[in-house]
Design goal:
Elements lengths: L2 E4 L7 H12 L4 E5 L2 E7 L3 H11 L8 E3 L3 H7 L4 H10 L4 E6 L15 E5 L4 H10 L3 E5 L12 H8 L5 E4 L9 E4 L6 E4 L13
Helix pairs in contact: 1-5
Amino acid sequence: MSQFFQIHMDTPQLRLVRQAVEAIHQGAVIVYPTDSGYALGCHLGDKNALDRIREIRQVPPQHNFTLVCSDLSEIAVYAQVSNTIYRLLRATTPGPYTFILPATREVPRRLQHPKRKTIGIRVPANPIARELLRELGEPIMSTTLILPGEQMPESDPYEIRQRLEHHVDLIIDGGFGSLEPSTVVDFTDDIPVIARQGLGSIEPFQRHD
């Protein structure tokens, strides 16, 4: 049965955050809040935890995961970012966006898109997620918590507990989440393409001729 931490949204309790980080280091699969609903996450290099997440979501091996990062400097380690893209990222992070970018060699091959060699990157604004990332010191390998047969991300931590307490190691209750997923912006060709419109405004990525 999973642990269940109630962490304050505005002032996350450092003791609980550090316990969550320790669980991630020990191979845990966690549920944690972002600014666009809840996500499943695990340690970047943990293949077993990654496979468990795939089983929970019932997604194929080629399903794309996202690296949830603490800031722009961390993004640059895992993704190739031009000056133009950097300016757009700086203007829109932290926030409810997922960016598809060319991956660097630091990204494990199993996390890259098999043909395009890209990676999804996110910098959330959610205070709990940000505190987790600060304490962890590296990205969390993540995917939106959309359960099999559902279309929208899970937003109620108590419903999540009922459905997943025997499948994950830790559930972080950070209050009710959004019912919308993040907006996905594809920068593969150095020009922003909206791959999915969600919670974040697309206006910053539209050309104004």
